[in-house]
Design brief:
Number of helices: 17
Helix content: 40-55%
CATH class of one domain: Alpha Beta
Distance between the termini: 47 Å
Largest sheet: 6 strands, parallel
Shape: globular
Strand content: 5-15%
Length: about 425
């Protein structure tokens, strides 16, 4: 039975979902599950939850718990990572509050934009350290990464370590479900092909599985009939302009481009229903609810409800262990997979998984306007990765200068000053730039 290590297992709710997925497979039900986190209190809660999940599924895993990363990784077959470097405080709060002083507002700030750049700079060195440990104690393990900014992280790992890795995100199946609801077709009846970069991939094919009917006109019909959901106005606007539907949510996408968040056009925020500071509010609500949730999770009288999620992690492990072939969407280095995106950048494409591991599907050239839009984000990713791997501060300025949202709102002096302020505020996490 495989040894499956969860790094950042103090993310209790996410760990619960992944464990339910893993232990729900009979072939994985007796696996060794190692839970690791630097927060011993949250780790204790996750251990209780893990044992409850196993009991609910009649699974018999060996559950081990440690705050020592090297111990957790020893001889592991699969390593699932779900950390947040610097946490909500100070990490996320700083990434929002300092840009606000310059009039630069964000919604999520974890993928691109100035917040995504800073998160990438904090996170990449830690992920590389984890992989260095893996090189020493489990060199053949697969590293399954759920940590944002996905493209920056995976691109850096592909350059810095020989460890096999795949980046995982649930935006593809989640969006397929939303579109299925909007057009009134069961999601199981839809066949689709998606390609691009994480959080900016597009449905190149969206058709009825059994008849082959092209369902993209039905998406257009949602606009024509004035049925666009309030939470999805940005994405439907982009669909109208591009002819293809993007995988990531409207609140995410609005900060990857220069067109929606404008401080001198506040009416656009209302027009497109853009939830500024959404991630801050979400985190505050989760923190406020954590103690009550923790007591409930730890209560012996409370049963755990286990439902299979749409996450790909368990499917990958199950297919690699059993040889049962599956298609998942993974973030992998672009080795001539999408031919009109740069070699080596991180692309999100369908991947075959079986005993041979995660094997990306050749896509070829995607529509040129989609590739051009992605390139604006890839420029920022490339320079952030360069800064993270070389320690050269100048590349951080250059990444921020080329960021579409930042460049649309601030002049060059403001951008450089903002970068200086953020590096100073994150000095304990970014000592190499001082």
């Amino acid at each position: 039975m495989p040894i499956i290590t969860l790094i950042g297992a103090g993310s209790t709710v996410f760990a619960k979902n992944l464990l339910g997925d893993l232990l729900g497979f009979p072939e994985l039900a007796s696996s060794t599950i190692r839970l690791m986190d630097i927060d011993a209190e949250r780790l204790h809660t996750s251990e209780i939850v893990a044992r409850k999940v196993a009991h609910a599924l009649n699974a018999t895993p060996t559950i081990e718990v440690t705050t020592d990363r090297r111990t957790a990784l020893q001889d592991a077959n699969y390593v699932i990572c779900m950390i947040q470097v610097a946490g909500y405080k100070p990490g996320t709060v700083v990434d929002f509050e300092i840009p606000k002083k310059y009039g630069l507002r964000q919604t999520i700030a974890d993928t691109l934009g100035i917040g995504g750049i800073m998160r990438g700079l904090r996170t990449i060195p830690v992920l590389i350290d984890i992989c260095r440990d893996m090189e020493a104690v489990c060199p053949n393990a697969l590293f399954l990464n759920y940590v944002n900014p996905m493209c920056m992280n995976q691109w850096a790992l592909s350059r810095a370590t020989p460890i096999k890795t795949v980046g995982l995100c649930h935006s593809v199946p989640h969006t397929a479900g939303e579109l299925a609801h909007d057009i009134g077709v069961p999601v199981g009846d839809i066949n689709y092909v998606v390609a691009g970069i994480n959080h900016m991939a597009f449905y190149l094919k969206f058709e009825q599985r059994y008849t082959g009917e092209n369902l993209i006109p039905r998406i257009a019909q949602v606009i024509a009939e004035d049925r666009v959901p309030e939470s999805n106005r940005v994405r439907y606007e982009m669909f109208k302009r591009l002819g293809y539907f993007v995988t990531e949510s409207s609140e995410h996408f609005s900060e990857y481009v220069p067109w929606f968040i404008k401080r001198d056009m506040p009416e656009m925020i209302e027009q497109y229903n853009i939830p500024l500071d959404e991630y801050i509010r979400r985190c505050e609500n989760q923190i406020a609810d954590w103690n009550a949730l923790r007591h409930k999770l730890e209560d012996d009288a409370e049963q755990i409800d286990v439902q299979r999620s749409v996450e790909y992690g368990s499917l990958i492990i199950h297919s690699m262990e059993t040889g049962i072939p599956r298609t998942i969407y993974g973030n992998m280095p672009n080795t001539n997979i999408i031919t009109n995106l740069p070699d080596g950048c991180c692309v999100e494409v369908p991947c075959l998984v079986d005993h041979n591991g995660v094997q990306p599907t050749h896509i070829g050239a995607i529509p040129p306007h989609l590739a051009a839009l992605m390139q604006t984000n890839i420029n920022v990713q490339a320079l952030t990765v360069e800064a993270a791997l070389t320690g050269k501060r100048e590349h951080i300025y250059h990444a921020a200068m080329l960021d579409p949202h930042t460049a649309a709102e601030l002049n060059l002096d403001q951008i450089w000053s903002l970068v200086d302020d953020l590096i100073d505020a994150h000095s304990s996490w970014l000592p190499q730039y001082h």
